[in-house]
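Trying the structure run again after the queue cleared.
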Amino acid sequence: MPAAEPTSEVADLAEKSLKAVMEKLAARGPEYEALAELARPIIEAVVWEVVPDMAEAIIAERAEKSSR
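Done. Tokens:
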């Protein structure tokens, strides 16, 4: 079964998460910034694996709580 397309909110969260990771690394100095740019495809892949699943879990949890 193919994965569902992420909603715009999830996509925004993933992009913000990626940006936050890249900024944290860059703030440690030019060597870390260069390393972050080299690792960007890997970091991006991890973010896109983790964030949509986390968002789905949080949404499901909130929906369950609100239906009680």
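The first helix runs from residue 8 to 27. Worth checking whether this holds up in the mutant runs.
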